[in-house]
Amino acid sequence: MAVDFSPEPVVADLAQRTAMFVRDVVIPIEERYQGVVRSEETRAALQREAKDAGVFAPHAGTEFGGHGLDMRGRAAVFEEAGYSLLGPLALNIAAPDEGNMHLLDAVANTSQKERYLRPLAAGEIRSCFAMTEPTPGAGSDPSALTTRAERVAGGWRIDGRKWFITGADGAGFTICMARTSGEPGDPGGATMFLVDAGTPGMTMIRHIDTLDESLFGGHIELLFDACVVPDDAVLGEVDEGFRYAQVRLGPARMTHCMRWLGIARRAQDVAVDRAGERRLFGSRQAELGMVQQMIADNEIDIAASRGLIMRACWELDDGHAAAQSTAIAKTFCAEAVWRVVDRSVQICGSLGISGDLPLSRFLREVRPFRIYDGPSEAHRWAIARRVVHRNDKANG
């Protein structure tokens, strides 16, 4: 059977146009703001440019103004967008909005899609996904969910505290995970609620100071205190929230990998350019054996990451749960991207840790990827557990 990794012509064309757009339009703005944009005006301007270039919303369905790419198609385009820290924001494929669009498309009813998905896909509003809680609440173990939602007249009352909620500052709505049955530690009993900005009882407590800064809208602590939402705020079915979370998380893990792979490529390009022009010990730095080893190891990590992403995307597009392949890809890519950026800093020496190159910013931005969307340790535990289960099953 023939194996062909080249993208479809329409995808290849969109990826090429995305690469040109990122280099010509986005990177100059990234350099101006050192990769951190907090202005809605700048966000809107970037997205207008992306629309004019015909590269906006590659993942969204055509009925919502997007290109309707499957996961394999997204891999090529998202990687090109991720070549700049601001590329995903410009194309409207940044976290958490991109993952929320996927979730809404899969779970929301027609009315909810019109009210939330359509303006989100158009970039008219932003969103956030509120699951993570302070200890002892939900984090690496979602079943520890403590936020509760109780039935009241005409709807639901939500009470609980969330933190590290990316993009919450200025979001038009929040998808809030709350327990509607059972107790913390139970594997079921969660429900997703669509909570509009300004709903009484939902309060932004603070911006959490974090290592990374480039994700728009910050990482926020939210308080839900007697926050009442109507019955039609339920996303999907009551008590099915954990199942819907898996619909979102597998693809979202892969799109994170795609975007950060673009930054890894950018870091490698910066390092190779520097090594090619710098002379020391009588030769170009790029001709020194230890530098060549780092360059080669970067290429290996980039190629291996891309292959694992494509394998997981193929399984997702084919309708498989892909839990093992997405866990493997996420764990490897999160660590490989860090290695690539770290080696690139080392190749560039003192310049690498300065603000004259973007590498130190990249290093700060990619480090948290080994924690969010499941830390590497939790993924390794799950990967090993599946392998042991498979072996036990095979041996009767």
From TrEMBL:
Annotated GO MF terms: acyl-CoA dehydrogenase activity; flavin adenine dinucleotide binding
Protein name as annotated: Acyl-CoA dehydrogenase family protein
Matches recorded under Pfam families: Acyl-CoA_dh_1, Acyl-CoA_dh_M, Acyl-CoA_dh_N
Keywords (A to Z) from UniProt: FAD, Flavoprotein, Oxidoreductase
GO biological process per UniProt: fatty acid beta-oxidation using acyl-CoA dehydrogenase
Organism name: Jiangella asiatica
Family affiliation: Belongs to the acyl-CoA dehydrogenase family.
Alphabetized PANTHER family for the sequence: ACYL-COA DEHYDROGENASE FAMILY MEMBER 11 (PTHR48083:SF13), MEDIUM-CHAIN SPECIFIC ACYL-COA DEHYDROGENASE, MITOCHONDRIAL-RELATED (PTHR48083)
Essential cofactor(s): FAD
InterPro entries: Acyl-CoA_dehydrogenase, Acyl-CoA_DH_CS, Acyl-CoA_Oxase/DH_mid-dom, Acyl-CoA_Oxase/DH_mid-dom_sf, AcylCo_DH-like_C, AcylCo_DH/oxidase_C, AcylCoA_DH/ox_N, AcylCoA_DH/ox_N_sf
Keyword Protein biosynthesis: no
PROSITE patterns: ACYL_COA_DH_2
Domain Acyl-CoA dehydrogenase/oxidase C-terminal intervals: 239-387
Cellular-component GO terms for this entry: cytoplasm
Residue ranges of every copy of the Acyl-CoA dehydrogenase/oxidase N-terminal domain listed in the record: 14-124
Domain Acyl-CoA oxidase/dehydrogenase middle as annotated: residue spans: 128-208
UniProt subunit comment: Homodimer.
